[in-house]
Amino acid sequence: MNNQAFLEAIDNIVKEKNIEREVVWEAMELAMATAYKKNFDNKSNVKVEINRETGDIKIYAYQLVVKRVTDPEIEITVAKARKIKPDAVEGDELLEEVTPQDFGRVAAGTAKQVVMQKIREAERESIMTEFNDKEGELVVGSLSREDVKNYYVDLGRAHGILPKSEMIPGELVKMGTSIKVYISKIENGPKGPVILLTRKHYNFVKRLFEREIPELMDGTVMIHGIAREAGERSKVAVYSNVLNVDAIGACIGNKGARIANIIKELAGEKVDLVLYDKEPKVFIENALSPAKNLQIVFTDESEENALVIADPDNLSLAIGKRGINVKLAARLVKKRLDVMTLVDARDKGYDLGFVE
Fold first, then answer.
1. Residue-wise pLDDT tens digits, 239-260
2. Which are the contacts of 247, defined by CB distance < 8 A and separation ≥ 6?
């Protein structure tokens, strides 16, 4: 390989692997030094210098200048060094060029192996750097393959692992199609970044809302919290500190277009929009929608436990199918909720004479 072809090869590696040029040069120098020691001299200290402009390779054997020699192969006394280099001092390196005439041919195989290893390491580091700040973010990839337990999502320079257990229950996907996923965790594995993906995490819903609703991105509307049972229902508490801004209306969109797009991405999962309120009792009542006409009584001084009184017509709505509505509402408001009728509450010994 002539120098021009060598320089072009460096350029190609830099572009294809998206790693810094100096990293490649240093990998080349390491490879050349390894090849020289393997094929020519494994006793001497060796350093390689490659001219970044011309591609010229020079190999130097060197001895370290010391006061007392313990290994004459790699060390030289100050007195002897000054016979070669008059101003030599302890700690200097005495260089001698030893570039073999046919070095390029002999070293090519060894150099390639070492360089590719270094490049793989640099590429893994580059990919880690690229994806590190994407943890906790929504990304779009394409389904490239699957095995018994996982789907593998092509994210560009890396593949993410989407466990089938992290899919929305009941949804169907096809290989080769694009898919939105939430990056739950990134780890530096022995073969490169391990990128774990999910579509079940509650923050997947949050990121979908942020993509679909501009008011969330500009701060006009805020998400207070999300509670989710993937595949069944999500409750999303929103509010706005801006006068005359309807937070729920902004999330629904014109003719329901915004929320419809989110529900479609969630494979038909139901989404309840809840208006957040600083008053805990009001927030609890809002969270238990679609039930209405509820009365909230805190049963402890810390207000961590609340009794919810519902009339018979609203009891089943407040609890929900298989208890999902009250379970999600409790998660959303971060309190323990007991829902029952007034008659049942009195039968269980609650003193609710003041509740009508």
1. 999 989 999 999 999 999 999 9
2. 215, 221, 222, 238, 239, 240, 275
Domain limits for position 268: 201-276
User: Strand order in 233-239's β-sheet?
Assistant: 222-229, 233-239, 270-275
Q: What is the CATH number of the domain that holds 186?
A: 2.40.50.140
DSSP class of residue 254 equals: G
Residue predicted with more confidence, 99 or 153: 153
With bands split at pLDDT 50, 70 and 90, how would you rate the model's confidence at 21? confident
Residues 181/166, Cβ–Cβ less than 8 Å: no
Q: Which helix (H) or strand (E) holds 179?
A: strand 178-189
Contact 78, 90 (CB under 8 A): yes
Strands 192-198 and 150-154: unpaired
pLDDT digits (tens, 9 = 90+) for 158-176: 899 999 999 999 999 999 9
Strand partners, 150: 163
Count CB atoms within 10 A of the CB of residue 117: 13
Cα–Cα–Cα angle for 176, 181, 184, rounded to 5 degrees: 135
End residue of a domain, out of 97, 127, 157? 127
Calculate mean pLDDT across residues 285-297: 94
> Are 86 and 35 members of one domain?
yes
pLDDT of 352 higher than 80: no
Global confidence as pTM:
0.71
| Peptide bond connecting 290 to the previous residue in cis, omega within 30 degrees of 0 | yes
